[in-house]
Amino acid sequence: MRNIVWIILLLGVARAQEYKFCAPVDTISNDACNALQRGESKVSCLRVADSAECAIRLAQGAADFGVFNAEELLLAYQFYPLDILPILQLRHKDRQEEEFEFQTVAVVPADLTQKVVSPGERLKLLKDGGLCHPGFSKSQWWNDYILKYFEKAVNRPHCQENVTVIENEIRSLRDFFGKACRPGEWSADSSIDEELKNKYPELCALCDNQAACSYNNKEKHGHFGALECLARRNGKVAYVALSYVREYLKTNATFQFLCPNGNILPLTSETPCAWLKQPWSVIAARK
Ligand SMILES: *[C@@H]1O[C@H](CO)[C@@H](O)[C@H](O)[C@H]1NC(C)=O
Ligand SMILES: *[C@@H]1O[C@H](CO)[C@@H](O)[C@H](O)[C@H]1NC(C)=O
């Protein structure tokens, strides 16, 4: 019996197909790609422009598997609902127990919420209170949607005539929060970015370096800077990743989580209220 199993296994190995892994060029170097195919490897590597091309290659059968984040997988599903399937979730090796790659939370000083108001009214207490934001940079997990989620949720920008979409967004922020530190590029066009920074300096007023619109502490993509901004009482709310709150503020009773429905929870809470929860990336394969 055992021998038969061995023979079947050996036949399996001898017949093993070569699997083609596709990866966007900005996620894998040529060397790393080549290294995958060395020796006895059953995997070859195909570098593609982006995850959209990877989805196309999978659907065509020109590649066998690839790594997709949640947004990329949702997009691929719109075009190829039957051709591509997620087969494995990729969790960080030190965070196997965590259900999400990250969660976004809002943290406020505990005394902000001592005034007795209904939860629905509580978000309004942030008006003119200052916002401590981690900032915009390309080298991070948080995309524009995630970075702007909190500020748009507490204060939906209303269209104003004669201003561009981006200026409308910035002006609404200034009108609601009063002041902020919101580092990084507000617009991909650097001349527009400079113009907006000159016109709305209030949104850099809570920064350590107001002229550069930046925190001194750039650790964790600005999240520590934003938490320092809150801890120094520059702003009444910081919108940051839950894991950095655990790391930086720990369970400091001076601060609380502010929930999307206006409720509050202590930092000791095991299940804090997140504004957004990002699922882990997956390996998706050709069907
Ligand atoms: C918009 O700009 C035009 C041209 O500059 C001006 O005539 C008009 O009054 C402006 N409208 C508002 C609402 O500011
Ligand atoms: C909590 O944070 C405040 C403000 O940063 C700080 O002064 C205080 O020492 C912290 N408390 C604890 C227990 O870490």
Rg (C-alpha, Å): 24 Å
Number of helices: 10
Overall form: globular
| Helical residue percent band | 25-40%
Q: Which hetero compounds are present in the coordinates?
A: 2-acetamido-2-deoxy-beta-D-glucopyranose
- The total strand number stands at 12
- Main sheet: strands, sense, barrel: 7 strands, mixed
Structural domain tally? 2
Which stretches of 5+ consecutive residues score pLDDT under 50?
7-15
The appropriate CATH architecture of the largest domain is 3-Layer(aba) Sandwich
N to C succession of SSEs: HEHEHEHEEHEHHEHHEHEEEE
CA distance, first residue to last residue: 33 Å
- CATH fold-level topology of the largest domain: D-Maltodextrin-Binding Protein, domain 2
- CATH class group of the largest domain: Alpha Beta
Determine the strand fraction and express it as a percent band. Answer: 15-25%
User: What is the mean pLDDT?
Assistant: 91
User: What's the CATH H-level homologous superfamily of the largest domain?
Assistant: Periplasmic binding protein-like II
Q: Which structural class best describes the helix and strand composition? A: alpha/beta
